[in-house]
């Protein structure tokens, strides 16, 4: 029975057999030579055999001792290896995520401290990059990405919805209203800021509403939502963008809806994506749970704000007509 083994005595025996003497074993184990000798005697009494024989002041293993040593040295080596692996894992608790850049800066960044307060013992690395992760060649635990969630072979789950609507600064809106009382007329007079990596771009949005014409121009195109939003805040034009990314500006009044005549479009937008095996990692499960909670709070806050601003919200799953600009996983 395993309970019959004196592991302390086995440890002493292994050290004596490996080092070739009681004194050397005692030095390694930091005990007295007499304590080592006593443990060896107890082990020999337990097995009923001699484990060592003495020749010219040297201790040599007997045949039974050699058999026991082969087993114990392998077992103790395995235990030392496991102990080292556990210590390395404890010392290197890293969590690596990749995030769409504007979402990382505007949404995730202000919430990082709350997550770290929740998981203070983990080292967190956030890579705000436009490129989707290659999980087979890169050290990435999960990707938090804008898109439709249709990434083949990966576990995906929507964490945050988006609400898109035309927005501009209050001063720019006043200029447009001075030119026309009609929202369509205001659009025709506006400088349109185009975010080129979003679900809903001006071409698609205008075509849905039959707002087209030679006077419609949008020479300002950005591949970062944060840049397009900042230009709108500065009074540079009207942007069709994410209330998720512009929530603070909408709450402060730095941005306002162009018109309550235009519905805001809500759709699942920000997803976690990773190989299914990564979901077995404790930190991935913790982060996913935290994101679900934060996402629900954000979605409720955004919906309440848009409604308070007087806009109706229509739920969609993404562009539904031929020629829509969204094609596959996009970085923003």
UniProtKB/TrEMBL annotation:
PANTHER family to which the protein is assigned, alphabetical: HTH-TYPE TRANSCRIPTIONAL ACTIVATOR TTDR-RELATED, HTH-TYPE TRANSCRIPTIONAL REGULATOR
Record's keyword annotation contains Transcription: yes
Keyword DNA-binding applies: yes
Protein name stated in the entry: Glycine cleavage system transcriptional activator
A Pfam family reported for this protein in Swiss-Prot or TrEMBL: HTH_1
GO term, biological process aspect, one: DNA-templated transcription
Annotated keywords: DNA-binding, Transcription, Transcription regulation
Single GO term (MF): DNA-binding transcription factor activity
Signal sequence, start to end: none
Domain of life (superkingdom): Bacteria
Domain HTH lysR-type: 5-62
Originating organism: Aquimixticola soesokkakensis
Family: Belongs to the LysR transcriptional regulatory family.
